Amino acid sequence: MSTLTLGKALNTGLRKAMEDDPKVVLMGEDIGKLGGVFRITDGLQKDFGEARVVDTPLAEAGIVGTAVGLAMRGYKPVVEIQFDGFVFPAYNQIVTQVAKIHARSRGKLPMPITIRIPFGGGIGAVEHHSESPEAYFAHTTGLKVVAVSNPADAYWMLQQAIAHPDPVVFFEPKRRYWDKAEVDLDAAPPPLFSSRVVRAGDDVTLLAYGPMVKTALQAAEAAEAEGRSLEVVDLRTLSPLDLAPVEESVRRTGRCVVVHEAQTTLGLGAEIAARVSESCFHSLEAPVLRVGGYDVTYPPSKLEEEYLPDLDRVLEAVDRSMGF
Amino acid sequence: MQTVVTNVQTREFVITAIAHQPPVQDGRPVAPSSDPTTARTSLATMWKIRRFEEAVDDLFARGLMHGTMHLSIGQEASATGVCLALRERDAITSTHRGHGHCIAQGADLTRMMAELLAKESGYCRGRGGSMHIADVATGNLGANGIVGGGIPIAAGAALAYKMRGEDRVVASFFGDGATNEGAFHEGLNLAAIWDLPVVFVCENNKYGMSFSTEFSMAVPHVAERAAAYGMPGVTVDGNDLDAVHAAAAEAVDRARNGGGPTLIEAETYRWKGHSKSDKNLYRTREEIAEWRERDPILAFETKVTESGLLTAQDVAAARDEATEAIKNAVREANAGVDADPGDLLDAVFAPLDTQDVTR
Ligand SMILES: Cc1ncc(C[n+]2csc(CCOP(=O)(O)OP(=O)(O)O)c2C)c(N)n1
Ligand SMILES: [Mg+2]
């Protein structure tokens, strides 16, 4: 057992992946000497050399594009996008190449790329630095998308994503980078593309991923004080979705609320609500409700508290669900 | 000098004062160091930039300002020299490190400070912050949080001027790091093939965050990249106000007269870290000290006092004027009303009454 911050767990996971497989290569802006703006790659260039931890110029399209070529020729590139909003210059490469090459070549060209994106708000940054673009990627056929919420998952899921033969867009909750927890570095991890119940309850099923898992757990805590029992599921995988644990839960509770920071409109919650409504129709006591960001450009830091879903907004949705 | 602009919130016409008109004598641009009035205003502008950013640095350090910011202390001459070469109705695009461009282009210091303090009285009603100030009245089409983001935008604004047959010019500021982004190459090529009235101004401060130009480019000078697009490229000492102004005046003149774009590389240095959290791990103390010796403001002060153009009192007066102006700006901005979270949903789209598509 080690006590690690989520950031350090990612760093340790990267180190382990690089030790385990010499084909793992890291690329990104300021990841070498500086160790990344969030220090996730801290010390790795010193230990693995400049050929395996590559400091690149500002060139997101170029970085992801070269990762595609590296992957075609047997490497396992792990790309760091500095902030969520800077993935867009690379979006073309991700959607038109990364996502399609395995299918286009009928499997002859492998695409084991991991694209790490720190996402979400809550650190007092602004537009381009606080966004939650996961739905764009989850919507794209050919990409797998995961989001971690805690140090143990950060450590394991990053290694699993890197070892996985398909492209994985790996979302890291930047405002939780400094959260600490015990991590068992020897335990066998659950499968990468699996969701997990992280708190048991009977009244309402709360679904969350990434930074909102902590918020959902806090909401469950607060609800308990009021005599309400919320079950919390950490989705972990956004594409493919693993809804078996969700359905099992919703069939018991009859109520479901999905929480994410991303804008509500056409967010992950919409897809989940549709699927849960189909599969659990006869068990539902209330429509599946969504709590998410508003349909506005991400606000400046002084107003972000108003934007971000918080305890109150989650509990308000729980109340509405119970009110049906 | 006055101009009429549309106030985007109230959609009323308002009158706004505009700062500059480039000094010309016999049809030739006048060097800032050869005319006392220009020398004094240029000096005051450079000091305003520095004092503004020192104030911002201080407000952040004391926890009174939030978000992030990028300071251009040490780079004041490039913004000042380029904007001095522009006419009143010209435009600029700016960067994440944009306070200097904004001030040199004539922005109101109180409204700028208010924007950084997230006040309703700020340029973007406190919604843009340091990295996204736009001051449409002075032709500042906006700072940009996306590196390289302003470059094709500048080409587009210039295309508009060209299509309308107006002799207006756009100056586009960006850093050395931006010249490695695709947007730079696409933007320069478009400006070149369409002969657009743009002046591309690369403020080469040797680093894109932690990454040295020594490793990020295979040519020693950004200006060499101009050749690939068939436009002139010049490298100037970005800490020499006269040199920047001369290069900019020539490029602006060419652009205005149908000669197409130019790429100017102004070699300079940022004294402070990349942003508020930088520990300067990628550069040496000696290098920073060396460049601090090449202070663009001090260099200009020395030049104009040694030549006898300005007295020591003139120089002190320009500095004091700036210090005072910034103090006022901080005080006035602080007195403003905080941006209202109740309006969070505003302004994503044009006002409803302008959206009737049947019109
Ligand atoms: C597309 C994009 N990628 C990365 C960033 C993060 N970032 C902000 S400024 C910067 C360095 C920019 O370097 P340069 O263009 O030389 O300007 P300078 O900061 O030196 O003024 C980086 C990497 C960004 N804002 N946009
Ligand atoms: Mg730079």
Automatic annotation (TrEMBL), chain A:
- Tell me, what is one Gene Ontology molecular-function annotation carried by this entry? oxidoreductase activity
**Top-rank taxon:** Bacteria
Record bears the keyword Oxidoreductase: yes
Recorded hits in InterPro entries, A to Z, give: THDP-binding (IPR029061), Transketo_C/PFOR_II (IPR009014), Transketolase-like_Pyr-bd (IPR005475), Transketolase_C (IPR033248)
The UniProt entry, under SMART domains, shows: Transket_pyr
Q: What does the UniProt keyword field contain?
A: Oxidoreductase, Pyruvate, Thiamine pyrophosphate
Xref: Pfam families? Transket_pyr, Transketolase_C
Q: Where is the Transketolase-like pyrimidine-binding domain?
A: 4-179
Name any cofactors this protein relies on: thiamine diphosphate
| Name the UniProt record assigns to this protein | Pyruvate dehydrogenase E1 component beta subunit
The scientific name of the source species is Klenkia brasiliensis
From TrEMBL, chain B:
Q: Which residue range or ranges hold the Dehydrogenase E1 component domain?
A: 46-335
MF annotations from Gene Ontology: magnesium ion binding; pyruvate dehydrogenase (acetyl-transferring) activity
Q: Which domain of life is it from?
A: Bacteria
**Which biological processes are named by the entry's GO terms?**
pyruvate decarboxylation to acetyl-CoA
Question: What does the record give as cofactor?
Answer: thiamine diphosphate
**One Pfam family cited in the UniProt record for this chain:** E1_dh
Q: Which InterPro entries match?
A: DH_E1, PDH_E1_Alpha_Subunit, THDP-binding
Keyword annotations of the record: Oxidoreductase, Pyruvate, Thiamine pyrophosphate
Stored PANTHER family: PYRUVATE DEHYDROGENASE E1 COMPONENT SUBUNIT ALPHA (PTHR11516:SF60), PYRUVATE DEHYDROGENASE E1 COMPONENT, ALPHA SUBUNIT BACTERIAL AND ORGANELLAR (PTHR11516)
Q: Return the protein name.
A: Pyruvate dehydrogenase E1 component alpha subunit
Say which species the protein is native to: Klenkia brasiliensis
